Amino acid sequence: MIALNTQTILITGASSGIGAACAKAFARENAKLILAARRLEKLEEKAWELNKLYGVETHLLQLDVCDRSSVESAINNLPPEWSEIDILINNAGLSRGLDKLHEGDFQDWEEMIDTNIKGLLYLTRYVVPGMVARGHGHVINIGSIAGHQTYPGGNVYCGTKAAVKAITEGLKQDLLGTPVRVTSVDPGMVETEFSEVRFHGDTERAKKVYEGVTPLTADDVADVIFFCATRPNHVNINEIILMPVDQASATLVNRKL
């Protein structure tokens, strides 16, 4: 298993959900953590918690991954002791709405495309050259079962996650001949803020998504990401699809109501 106490790990969307769970999982191994998210107050709370629990070093970036110039500035202006990123976890992502395509909200589309595709591309473009130059690194993209199977109302979100799948595969091919590893971790139902964000803060509607089901937790997904990151250097886990036992596909769910 690769030791993480000498590694610097950049996690986007680190203020909550899977990103926050990843921060905790890697903090336990005393990795240096660069935590990025739009909500600085949430990041500060997370950093304080991790320092109290594990004494871990953190560097916080208030960052909107959709803003290319902000991403460029954030990466290029990291303090020297934080500038050599060993693992990039492209976690920032979201879904908006469940409208039929011909009734969809343009703003929802823009937000999903800008965050899930362009934001991931921006971070990858600014971080990976350093990995190649140093001959070491690992990019872990958080995809989704939605990138493998579409479902009614999922149209654009599924499209963005299919793009993540294709981008991850393309990146792996482009990095052939370098020691840089590339992984996609693609979960099914995970109970985080995901559905609340999808339904624009409608908590009651969000709760119904998980009724009668034992979904994955953010910690479950972080555990799989941790596993991928700690394999020996010659091992690359290309792709993992994980779902709760109560889910068999994007649309087949066993609800005990």
Distance between the termini: 42 Å
SS-derived structural category: alpha/beta
- Average of pLDDT: 95
In total, how many domains does the architecture comprise? 1
Total of DSSP H or I helical runs spanning 4+ residues = 8
- How large is the share of residues in beta strands? 5-15%
Biggest sheet, spatial arrangement of strands? 3-2-1-4-5-6-7
Q: H/E element string?
A: EHEHEHEHEHEHHHE
Largest sheet: 7 strands, parallel
Q: Which residues form runs of ≥5 with pLDDT under 50?
A: none
Integer-rounded radius of gyration: 18 Å
Structure description:
This protein has 257 residues and is α/β, with parallel strands linked by helices. It has a single domain, classed as Rossmann fold, CATH 3.40.50. Helix content is 42%, strand content 14%. It has a 7-stranded parallel beta sheet with strand order 3-2-1-4-5-6-7, with helices on both faces. The longest helix is centred in the middle third of the chain and has 29 residues. The termini are far apart. The mean pLDDT is 95.
